[in-house]
Amino acid sequence: MRRSARDTEESARRISRRALFLGGSMAAVVAVLGARMRYMQVEKADEFRLLAEDNRISIRLIPPARGLIQDRNGKLIAGNEQNYRVVISREDAGDVSDVLHRLAGIVPISAEDLDRALKEAKRRSPLPIIVSDRMPWEDVSKVALNAPALPGVSPEVGLSRIYPRDTDFAHVVGYVGPVSEADLARVDNPDPILTAPKFQIGKIGVETWMEDTLRGQAGHRRVEVNVTGRVMRELDRQEGEPGADIRLTLDADVQNFVQARLGDESAAAVVMDVQTGDIIAIASAPSFDPNLFVRGISHKDYNALTENDHRPLANKSVQGAYPPGSTFKMVTALAALQAGAITTSTAVRCPGYFEIAGRRFHCWKGGGHGSVTLDRSLAESCDVFYYDVAVKAGIDKMAEMGRMLGLGQRHDLPMSAITEGNMPDKAWKTARYGQEWRVGDTVNAAIGQGYVLTSPLQLAVMTARIASGRSVVPRLIHSIDGKEVPVAEAAPLPIEPAHLRAVREGMFAVNNSQRGTAYASRIDDKSLRMAGKTGTSQVRNISTAERARGVIGNAQLPWNRRDHALFVGFAPYDAPRYAVVVVVEHGGGGSAVAAPVARDIILRALSDGMPPLTAYPAAQRNRIESQQKDLPLRAADPPGPAASRA
Amino acid sequence: MSFLEYRIKFVPTGPRKILYINWALVVLLIAVASVGFLMLYSVAGGRIDVWAEPQMKRFGLGLAVMFIVAFVPVWFWRNMAGVAYVVSLALLVVVEFFGHVGMGAQRWINLGFMMLQPSELMKVAIVMMLAAYYDWLDVKKVSRPLWVLIPVLLILIPTGLIVVQPDLGTSILVMVGGAVVMFCAGVSWIYFGVVIAAGVGMVAAVLASRGTPWQLLQDYQYRRIDTFLDPSNDPLGAGYHISQAKIALGSGGWTGRGFMQGTQSRLNFLPEKHTDFIFTTLAEEFGFVGAFSLLVLYAMILGFCIVSAIQNKDRFASLLTLGIAATFFLYFAINMLMVMGLAPVVGVPLPLVSYGGSSMLVLLAAFGLVQSAHIHRPR
Questions:
Q1: Which residues of B touch A40 (CB under 8 A)?
Q2: Which CA distances in Å does B292 have to A40, B297, B351?
Q3: pLDDT per residue over B75-123, tens digit each?
Q4: ipTM of the complex
Q5: Cβ pair A285, A320 in contact under 8 A
Q6: A92 to chain B: nearest residue by CA?
Q7: For a Cys staple, B326 with which of A548, B15, B180, B217, CB 3.0–4.6 Å?
Q8: Most confident listed range (A366-370, A619-623, B235-239)
């Protein structure tokens, strides 16, 4: 196509005109840009430069104050204390190593801390690094004074966990510790606060089981910091939520008494309210100081704990699974009564042994008890009676009764390593060993030996259920943030009341009839009288040869081969309030070792302070008085200020 | 063959073309790119290998592309305009369905050796297409409604495709680039008046639609508008970019803090410090003197293009040159307005300075077209 020259000329001129207009517009915009630059960079330069100096924004998490743990009366078990520490911000410090060495010249910092801080600095985390924790105030003020020479270093106040009743609650409440990789891996969506340096979470016990309740919600603040890392102003702040306080059902003073009374024995004790299921005290001895773990336990201390043959770290009251021995006889008796195998007046002749399937099972009393009824069988702990009625009732009936009374199951308390124990039956043995259940197994189970394993907590539940006739459930958390955790509904046990009454009467006789195995540990005060059952469980087999030579006494055996001493009981007999269980590992006989401890403990729970001497039989009062004086109890209340929430 | 319209005395051929290249423009482009290399070296904390070196390689490649494009006669490019447009449009459709999602937007096609942004190609293709259209169109018909509607559609189809990616910045560039070619071609002022009035109406509609079911922009785009209008209401959230950019820029002063001395970019207060916000680093380190010098370099590039366009009697060639100049202008103007707090943050790089391959290659190819127009102008 060929256009006329005029059109082409005209078109070119028009393009030129419009191009000039376009160029003019562009020039105008460029002029605006230039003017804006001049305005910002020349006229407002000082203002912007000032802003730039301050222009370092950092986000700091505000760790929430961990919820307190108190006993049922509000006495502090776990609290928080303020501690001073020095942190360094990598970004602001520039040369971290140089600044740290300068800092070490001003205040004492261990080589270990220094190394760790340098290592952390290499990880390039944006969070400040804690150089030194739990510093004395003088050192912190020295750091503050030398601030200009220490860019990026700043003193901070933090909260750390403290257990004012140190060893008393170590096993129940547990302790907190720094968050480990494993801890982080366990949670799906970790709270960012978990990655904050030195943040601590529950590691064991109530502290870990109630972690979500106790932790609270972290807050954060955005701050502008200047060149040396000093906070110039806070841009915004969102307060976190402190963790909720937890009140336990435990009584701190009773717990302290129990722990003191168990002393250095390898033992466990539980005190439980038979009506509500409230755990009043739950102790494991020997104990340890949880504060050591919070501060970071030394290898030496840790090894001392793990190498101790009394296993201080084990929570024996819920973790220990012991053959219940004769304390199991109530289960056997109730099973036989319920099954109709015996009545409350059935008599069994005890010649000192019991023969079945070609095997001979011995009663603890070589000469035998003669004709024995239920009442006497409990009081004198006749074994043959139970061999006989157990074979009549059968293991499955016994197992059913055991479970009904709380054995062989995990009671759900917020504590670590709670054992299920073992309540064997025919199906269990087939599944476990692929063998037929033998009648001999039933005979062993009748007196709480063989495959039967129970924890002190389970025995406490059993005793409480026998005492109250209702299926009480143990409770450890009394209230959370002031709101009470409801007591579980406890339905009456599906057991004939007359049967329960007969068993309780037998247990009463244990403590209160002259021939009772725990008569020496009776309570004299009519309104506080105790009913109970002793138990001595073998941890070794007695061979026929040994029996022929004469059974070796416990005193001659090495400690870890001696029998466990057990006692379960409840009081007052007429209006049951508390159940008590004491297990002394390798303690010897239940009546001699466990029963006196149990009596002291239940009296302490029933009284308001030291048990009154009038509750004890007159002949024992002098001895008890001096024993009470020697008890290493804690002073009335631990010092206050350190224990506050701060 | 509109060249037959002109009485051509002389067109350079063969190696002689080198003598007729607009060398001043080449020098200006190299100068601007060198500013970019310096700044990329600085924001990388004195390291050449992070951003500066790849950028230099790409610039070298881009220059080669520019020369190749420049030596090809401009009438070839006019004939290719339709093809370029259709291919670009097809690629836009392809990214819409198969594109690689990066930085929250679907803009990339992976070619194996590089990531291609078809919207970048479209910036040039739209200018070529419209220049060729007006070259073909009878001068008398330019302002007739039907003949205005066609280029409007040619502009709106790719613009729409780019908006949904979503890439507001590039769609503005394509739309305004196309409009500038229409304007220069002589479309009546009345149309532009109407469009501007409609645009104002659109803005009102966009703002009014917010929160309603027929909301026209994405939430994040609204938030950018909000923070543009009042950056101080959210200094740590969305307004952060603008506030930080202004602080860095303003704190440069007359002569700046000195090369490699910019504290703001070093401390990571600046977002996208090597791409969209690189101008702030320049302004902080070299102050008003440095920032204004870059502006002058850009203005000179524009000046050379406009002069070349006016000298050129060929319609396609001058419209092409003007369209490319306008696109280039929009690039740096929007970017600078943005970092200086005069325009919302729309994500437009600083041409030849910001780190980025696609955009630099396409820009240099576009300048190749400008050179081609310049070399092969009828004399």
A1: 246, 249-250, 340
A2: 12, 9, 15
A3: 899 999 999 999 999 988 888 777 655 544 556 676 666 677 888 889 9
A4: 0.89
A5: no
A6: B267
A7: B180
A8: A619-623
Residue carrying structure tokens 């021939």 = A515
Taking alpha carbons only, the member of A328, A265, A271 closest to residue A535 is A328
Neighbours of B226 (CB within 10 A): 16
Q: Determine, for residues A52 and B247 on separate chains, whether the beta-carbon distance falls below 8 Å.
A: yes
B329–chain A nearest CA distance, Å: 7
Among residues A55, A38, A52, which one has the least CA distance to residue B254? A38
Sign of the dihedral defined by the CA atoms of residues A515, A517, A519, A520, in that order = positive
Beta bridge partners of A156: A85
What span, in angstroms and rounded, lies between the C-alpha atoms of A316 and A314?
Answer: 6
Model confidence pTM above 0.80: no
**Residues in Cβ contact with B17 at an 8 Å cutoff, skipping those fewer than 6 apart:** B70, B71, B375
Contact between A529 and A554 under an 8 Å Cβ cutoff? The reply is no
Give the helix ranges, DSSP H, for A282-326: 290-295, 299-307, 316-319
3-state secondary structure of A566: strand
B266: how many CB neighbours lie within 10 A of its CB? 16
User: Exactly one of A89, A326, A381, A537 is catalytic; which is it?
Assistant: A326
Is A543 an active-site residue? no
Two tokens at B149?
């509607």
AA letter at A356? I
Q: What is the mean pLDDT of residues B28-44?
A: 91
CA dihedral for A13, A15, A17, A23, sign (positive or negative): negative
What are the backbone dihedrals phi and psi of residue A349, each rounded to the nearest 5 degrees, phi first? Answer: -85, 130
Q: What's the N-to-C CA distance of chain A in angstroms?
A: 93
Q: Has residue A4 got a pLDDT over 70?
A: no
A7 touches chain B (CB under 8 A): yes
| Integer Cα distance of A194 and B203 in angstroms | 47
Please give the sequence-ordered ranges of beta strands (E in DSSP) within A293-352, or none if there are none: 348-350
Q: Are A405 and A461 in contact (CB under 8 A)?
A: yes
Rounded to whole angstroms, the Cα distance separating A332 from B137 reads: 111
A19·B306 Cβ contact <8 A: yes
Query: How do strand A267-273 and strand A76-88 relate by DSSP bridges?
Result: unpaired
- Cross-strand bridge partners of residue A220: A61, A238
Q: Which amino acid is at A151?
A: P
Q: What is the pLDDT of residues A172-194, one digit of tens each?
A: 999 998 888 778 777 766 677 77
Residues of B in contact with A34 (CB under 8 A): 292, 295
Rounded distance between C-alpha atoms, residue A561 and residue A554, angstroms = 8
Q: What's the CA gap between A125 and A123, in Å, rounded?
A: 6
Yes or no, beta carbons of A37 and B291 under 8 Å apart? yes
Query: In degrees to the nearest 10, what's the CA dihedral of B282, B283, B289, B295?
Result: 80
Return d(Cα A12, Cα B201) in angstroms, integer. 34
Note whether A34 contacts B: Cβ–Cβ < 8 A: yes
pLDDT band at B230 (very low <50, low <70, confident <90, very high): low
**A56 contacts chain B (CB < 8 A):** yes
Give the mutation candidate from A9, A32, A33 for the B interface (greatest B CB count, under 10 A). A33
Burial A595-616 (b: 16+ CB within 10 A, else e): bbbbbbbbbbbbeeeebeeebb
Q: For residue B138, how many C-alpha atoms fall within 13 Å in the half-sphere facing its CB?
A: 6
Contacts of A23 in chain B (CB under 8 A): 302-303, 306
Tell me which residue in B139, B236, B247 faces A48 most closely, judged by beta carbons. B247
Instruction: With beta carbons under 8 A apart, name residues in chain A contacting B337.
Output: 33
- Write the CA distances from B220 to B105, B167, B342, integer angstroms: 12, 12, 19
